């Protein structure tokens, strides 16, 4: 049967490339557990081949002016717009997202691409003053060389656009390590870059497992900048290995993001945003609001409304469904295990807590939206990311205690507070340990021109996208010249 399945190869030097070992991984449909396709199980040699292609193409690409590079990226944007439905359908099939979510993500990726394509006409340096008479000084941005971009499957086309467009506009050539669970969208995007006129070798895709396919990008001396989005554990390893050889490393890692509800909040709005933060994309967001901290006087009202709302969310992959499955069986099993551990540690499962048993969902990797209360703030599920539709509730006496609890994990990615008081909102936003602080909205919602990244174990201090991404993907050079006036 597997011979008739589609096989998703690598993309090297402008064409499809089969894995040198002829080994393939099975990729399953998250909605029904059936085999969907096979994915190249790339070896170290495959990754090195892609790095060679990128190294060779770098020369031509980096010599183009940023404006010209921006025009070519603009043509890729046009192709993405023309084929947006196809991109969205591909994401929906691979990840199990409901169609409106897949379309929304594709729209976000296009905006991202558009923003960085137009950066070709800006890519500003600075004009500097000097203490030396006749000396003029300025900075320019120069590419680093080969960019190794490693992405997860949670928002696959957005993740690809997030890293690829800033890397390319700065003049780097790219090797993208696609996620095991979203291989086809990476190949589709690669094909589209060729159709749009990107020179061969400037954008390459390596499929397969993190180790060895992704790890080779981290260890190979020819990869000058590594941008990784994924789990904190893998990020630590990349920081160590990439850091040792002094490669530039940008890490976008996990989160356990606090969502604070004050006693003066609009509770219905807070419940609306809390449910979106915790459960949309089946909780598979680095920016998911997975710890809800509520002031005691409104705790019961908030809890009862959230517990009424969660089971009303519709699971499935058809239009209008609120959340789909998680992306693979291993992830589903690890979430169920985390819920069981929470139960054993004294957590009360107020709703959800298991995989649904309905006939049309039972074979997929679904998890019911789950709300847990009564868990100690130091319990595993209160502090570690589960990357699924699971949220814990924590009542607190006052805002000071809410802040203390909000800052009590190793992470620091995003945070939200719901209050009608500007004073409370600003007090909290200034003090919370998070790279993004939102007031009266969800824990997610960054836009292409806004810097995103985290404190603590959520990253290594870089910010992507926004204009700050240019600092990840370019070297800054200071050029000075001395004007002589004695011969005039
Ligand atoms: P993961 O770390 O297991 O894998 C992410 C990618 O890294 C995959 O392509 C994988 O193949 C690759 N990889 C794994 N081991 C590797 C290694 N040793 N060397 C090189 N590459 C390797 O993460 P995941 O479970 O796929 O994704 C979920 C995680 O991503 C969560 O922790 C989530 O918070 C995080 N995430 C962070 C952001 C952000 O912007 N901060 C955004 C989305 C997801």
Account of the protein in words:
- With 488 residues, the chain is of the alpha/beta class.
- It has two domains: 7-253 and 459-476, Aldehyde Dehydrogenase, Chain A, domain 1 (3-Layer(aba) Sandwich); 258-439, Aldehyde Dehydrogenase, Chain A, domain 2 (3-Layer(aba) Sandwich), CATH 3.40.309.10.
- It has helices spanning 44-63, 66-82, 84-95, 99-118, 156-169, 183-195, 210-219, 232-244, 267-279, 296-309, 329-344, 380-383, 399-406, 422-431, 469-473; strands at residues 7-8, 10-12, 15-17, 24-28, 35-40, 127-128, 135-143, 146-150, 173-177, 203-206, 223-229, 248-252, 257-261, 289-295, 348-351, 370-373, 390-396, 414-418, 436-439, 474-482.
- The radius of gyration is 24 Å and the shape is globular.
- The chain starts with 6 loop residues before the first strand and ends in a 6-residue tail after the last strand.
- Nicotinamide-adenine-dinucleotide is lined by residues 150-154, 177, 179-180, 209-211, 214-215, 218, 229-231, 234, 237-238, 252-255, 286, 385, 387, 413.
């Amino acid at each position: 049967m597997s011979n008739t399945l589609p096989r998703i190869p690598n993309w090297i030097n402008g064409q499809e490339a089969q894995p040198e070992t002829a080994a393939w991984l099975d990729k399953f449909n998250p909605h029904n557990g059936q085999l969907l396709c096979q994915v190249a199980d790339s070896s170290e040699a495959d990754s090195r081949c892609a790095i060679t292609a990128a190294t060779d193409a770098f020369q031509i690409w980096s010599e183009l002016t940023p404006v010209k590079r921006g025009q070519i990226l603009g043509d890729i944007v046009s192709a993405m717009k023309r084929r947006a439905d196809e991109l969205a359908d591909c994401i929906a099939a691979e990840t199990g997202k409901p169609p409106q979510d897949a379309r929304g993500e594709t729209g976000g990726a296009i905006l991202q691409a558009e923003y960085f394509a137009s950066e070709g006409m800006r890519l500003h340096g600075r004009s500097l003053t000097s203490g030396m008479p006749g000396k003029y000084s300025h900075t320019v941005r120069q590419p680093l060389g080969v960019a190794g971009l490693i992405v997860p499957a949670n928002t696959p086309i957005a993740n690809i656009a997030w890293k690829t467009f800033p890397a390319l506009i700065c003049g780097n050539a790219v090797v993208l390590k696609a996620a095991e669970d979203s291989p086809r969208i990476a190949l589709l995007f690669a094909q589209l870059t060729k159709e749009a006129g990107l020179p061969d070798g400037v954008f390459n895709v390596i499929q397969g497992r993190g180790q060895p396919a992704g790890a080779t990008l981290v260890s190979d001396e020819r990869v000058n900048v590594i941008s990784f989005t994924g789990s904190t554990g893998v990020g630590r390893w990349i920081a160590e290995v990439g850091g040792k050889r002094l490669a530039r490393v940008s890490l976008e890692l996990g989160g356990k993001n606090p969502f604070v509800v004050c006693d003066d909040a609009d509770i219905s709005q807070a419940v609306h945003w809390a449910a979106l933060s915790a459960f949309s994309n089946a909780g598979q967001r680095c920016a998911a609001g997975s710890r809800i901290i509520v002031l005691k006087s409104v705790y019961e009202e908030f809890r009862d409304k959230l517990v009424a709302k969660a089971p009303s969310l519709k699971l499935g992959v058809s239009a209008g469904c609120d959340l789909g499955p998680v992306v693979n069986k291993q992830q589903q099993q690890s979430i169920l295990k985390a819920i069981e551990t929470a139960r054993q540690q004294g957590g009360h499962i107020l709703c959800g807590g298991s995989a649904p048993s309905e006939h049309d969902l039972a074979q997929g990797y679904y998890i019911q939206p789950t709300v847990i209360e009564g868990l100690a703030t130091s319990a595993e599920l209160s502090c570690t990311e589960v990357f699924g539709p699971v949220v814990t509730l924590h009542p607190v006496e006052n805002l000071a205690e809410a802040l203390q609890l909000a800052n009590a994990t190793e992470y620091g990615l995003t945070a939200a507070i719901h209050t009608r008081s500007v004073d409370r909102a600003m007090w909290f936003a200034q003090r919370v340990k998070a790279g993004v602080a939102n007031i009266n909205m969800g824990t997610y919602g960054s836009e292409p021109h806004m810097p995103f990244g985290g404190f603590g174990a959520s990253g290594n201090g870089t910010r992507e996208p926004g204009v700050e991404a240019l600092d990840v993907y370019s070297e800054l050079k200071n050029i000075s010249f001395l004007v002589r006036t004695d011969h005039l």
